[in-house]
Amino acid sequence: MKSNSIEGAFAGVKFNKISKKLVYQFKYKPNLFSLSNFIGDLLYESLIQNEEFTMVSQNKLILVPIPLHKNKFRKRGYNQAEILAREVSKRFGFPVVDYLLRTKETGSQVGLTKDERQENIKGAFEFKEKFDVKNKKIILIDDVLTSGATFSECCKVLKKSGAGRVWAIAFAKED
Question: Is the pTM of this model over 0.85?
Protein backbone atom coordinates (compact mmCIF):
# COMPACT_ATOMS: atom_id res chain seq x y z
CA MET A 1 0.00 0.00 0.00
CA LYS A 2 1.36 3.40 -0.92
CA SER A 3 1.96 6.08 1.66
CA ASN A 4 -0.59 8.85 2.11
CA SER A 5 2.11 11.34 3.02
CA ILE A 6 3.61 14.20 1.05
CA GLU A 7 6.77 13.46 -0.93
CA GLY A 8 8.34 16.82 -0.08
CA ALA A 9 7.71 20.52 0.39
CA PHE A 10 9.25 23.61 -1.17
CA ALA A 11 9.01 27.21 -0.05
CA GLY A 12 10.08 30.50 -1.53
CA VAL A 13 11.07 32.40 1.58
CA LYS A 14 11.40 32.00 5.33
CA PHE A 15 8.34 33.18 7.26
CA ASN A 16 9.68 36.24 9.10
CA LYS A 17 8.50 39.81 9.80
CA ILE A 18 8.83 40.92 6.18
CA SER A 19 7.28 37.87 4.52
CA LYS A 20 4.51 37.84 7.14
CA LYS A 21 3.63 41.40 6.17
CA LEU A 22 3.71 40.47 2.46
CA VAL A 23 1.43 37.47 3.04
CA TYR A 24 -0.98 39.59 5.08
CA GLN A 25 -1.12 42.23 2.32
CA PHE A 26 -1.57 39.51 -0.29
CA LYS A 27 -4.39 37.88 1.66
CA TYR A 28 -6.37 40.82 2.96
CA LYS A 29 -5.63 44.03 1.12
CA PRO A 30 -6.95 45.49 -2.13
CA ASN A 31 -3.49 45.87 -3.72
CA LEU A 32 -3.45 42.11 -4.15
CA PHE A 33 -2.85 41.98 -7.88
CA SER A 34 0.21 44.22 -7.79
CA LEU A 35 1.66 41.90 -5.14
CA SER A 36 0.76 38.64 -6.88
CA ASN A 37 3.33 39.14 -9.65
CA PHE A 38 6.04 40.12 -7.16
CA ILE A 39 5.31 37.15 -4.88
CA GLY A 40 5.18 34.89 -7.96
CA ASP A 41 8.62 36.14 -9.03
CA LEU A 42 10.11 35.57 -5.57
CA LEU A 43 8.70 32.05 -5.41
CA TYR A 44 9.85 31.24 -8.96
CA GLU A 45 13.40 32.45 -8.31
CA SER A 46 13.60 30.32 -5.17
CA LEU A 47 12.19 27.22 -6.87
CA ILE A 48 14.52 27.32 -9.89
CA GLN A 49 17.50 27.46 -7.54
CA ASN A 50 16.34 24.37 -5.65
CA GLU A 51 17.98 21.23 -7.06
CA GLU A 52 15.33 18.89 -5.69
CA PHE A 53 12.52 20.99 -7.17
CA THR A 54 14.34 21.04 -10.52
CA MET A 55 14.25 17.22 -10.48
CA VAL A 56 10.56 17.12 -9.47
CA SER A 57 9.59 19.72 -12.08
CA GLN A 58 10.80 17.42 -14.89
CA ASN A 59 7.57 15.47 -14.31
CA LYS A 60 4.22 16.32 -15.84
CA LEU A 61 2.76 18.09 -12.80
CA ILE A 62 -0.61 19.55 -11.90
CA LEU A 63 -0.91 22.50 -9.50
CA VAL A 64 -3.74 22.23 -6.98
CA PRO A 65 -4.44 25.28 -4.82
CA ILE A 66 -5.59 24.69 -1.25
CA PRO A 67 -9.27 25.65 -1.38
CA LEU A 68 -11.04 28.11 0.88
CA HIS A 69 -14.43 27.34 2.41
CA LYS A 70 -17.20 28.99 0.37
CA ASN A 71 -18.01 31.41 3.23
CA LYS A 72 -14.40 32.61 3.49
CA PHE A 73 -14.18 32.85 -0.31
CA ARG A 74 -17.34 34.95 -0.42
CA LYS A 75 -16.04 37.26 2.32
CA ARG A 76 -12.55 37.68 0.79
CA GLY A 77 -13.59 37.55 -2.86
CA TYR A 78 -10.65 35.41 -3.99
CA ASN A 79 -8.46 32.48 -2.97
CA GLN A 80 -4.84 33.60 -2.52
CA ALA A 81 -3.62 30.01 -3.06
CA GLU A 82 -5.33 29.92 -6.45
CA ILE A 83 -3.73 33.23 -7.46
CA LEU A 84 -0.35 31.91 -6.34
CA ALA A 85 -0.94 28.70 -8.32
CA ARG A 86 -1.72 30.76 -11.45
CA GLU A 87 1.49 32.75 -10.96
CA VAL A 88 3.51 29.53 -10.70
CA SER A 89 1.64 28.11 -13.70
CA LYS A 90 2.57 31.16 -15.82
CA ARG A 91 6.25 30.55 -15.10
CA PHE A 92 6.40 26.74 -15.35
CA GLY A 93 3.51 25.90 -17.64
CA PHE A 94 1.88 23.41 -15.25
CA PRO A 95 -1.95 23.37 -15.40
CA VAL A 96 -3.97 24.52 -12.38
CA VAL A 97 -6.87 22.24 -11.44
CA ASP A 98 -9.27 22.60 -8.49
CA TYR A 99 -9.48 18.92 -7.51
CA LEU A 100 -10.42 19.71 -3.92
CA LEU A 101 -13.37 21.23 -2.12
CA ARG A 102 -13.21 22.59 1.42
CA THR A 103 -16.37 21.27 3.08
CA LYS A 104 -15.63 22.14 6.69
CA GLU A 105 -15.37 25.74 7.82
CA THR A 106 -12.31 25.69 10.06
CA GLY A 107 -11.02 28.32 12.39
CA SER A 108 -7.69 29.98 11.73
CA GLN A 109 -4.64 27.79 12.25
CA VAL A 110 -2.67 30.76 13.61
CA GLY A 111 -1.60 30.24 17.22
CA LEU A 112 -2.55 26.54 17.36
CA THR A 113 -0.16 23.76 18.30
CA LYS A 114 0.72 21.11 15.71
CA ASP A 115 -1.80 18.66 17.23
CA GLU A 116 -4.51 21.34 17.39
CA ARG A 117 -3.84 22.22 13.74
CA GLN A 118 -4.21 18.59 12.68
CA GLU A 119 -7.47 18.25 14.62
CA ASN A 120 -8.78 21.59 13.30
CA ILE A 121 -8.21 20.63 9.65
CA LYS A 122 -9.20 16.95 9.90
CA GLY A 123 -11.97 16.04 7.46
CA ALA A 124 -12.09 19.58 6.01
CA PHE A 125 -11.52 18.57 2.36
CA GLU A 126 -13.20 16.37 -0.21
CA PHE A 127 -12.15 15.26 -3.67
CA LYS A 128 -14.32 16.53 -6.52
CA GLU A 129 -15.56 13.25 -7.99
CA LYS A 130 -15.83 14.58 -11.55
CA PHE A 131 -12.03 14.38 -11.90
CA ASP A 132 -9.67 11.49 -12.47
CA VAL A 133 -6.34 11.79 -10.64
CA LYS A 134 -5.23 8.19 -11.06
CA ASN A 135 -1.42 8.15 -10.79
CA LYS A 136 -1.13 11.89 -11.50
CA LYS A 137 1.71 13.87 -9.97
CA ILE A 138 0.40 16.85 -8.05
CA ILE A 139 1.79 19.91 -6.33
CA LEU A 140 -0.44 21.41 -3.66
CA ILE A 141 0.07 25.14 -3.29
CA ASP A 142 -0.67 27.63 -0.51
CA ASP A 143 0.72 30.86 0.88
CA VAL A 144 2.24 29.63 4.17
CA LEU A 145 3.57 26.31 5.44
CA THR A 146 3.76 25.98 9.21
CA SER A 147 3.03 22.53 10.66
CA GLY A 148 2.08 21.00 7.31
CA ALA A 149 -1.32 19.87 8.65
CA THR A 150 -3.33 21.42 5.79
CA PHE A 151 -1.03 20.04 3.10
CA SER A 152 -1.07 16.60 4.75
CA GLU A 153 -4.84 16.49 4.96
CA CYS A 154 -5.21 17.47 1.29
CA CYS A 155 -2.56 14.92 0.31
CA LYS A 156 -4.48 12.13 2.07
CA VAL A 157 -7.67 13.04 0.21
CA LEU A 158 -5.87 13.11 -3.16
CA LYS A 159 -4.02 9.84 -2.61
CA LYS A 160 -7.19 8.08 -1.42
CA SER A 161 -8.70 9.21 -4.74
CA GLY A 162 -5.85 7.59 -6.68
CA ALA A 163 -3.27 10.36 -7.07
CA GLY A 164 0.32 9.26 -7.56
CA ARG A 165 2.95 11.45 -5.93
CA VAL A 166 2.08 14.70 -4.13
CA TRP A 167 4.39 17.57 -3.19
CA ALA A 168 3.71 20.96 -1.59
CA ILE A 169 4.75 24.50 -2.43
CA ALA A 170 4.27 27.49 -0.14
CA PHE A 171 5.36 31.06 -0.64
CA ALA A 172 6.66 31.21 2.95
CA LYS A 173 7.73 28.51 5.40
CA GLU A 174 7.86 28.83 9.16
CA ASP A 175 10.90 27.27 10.87
Answer: yes
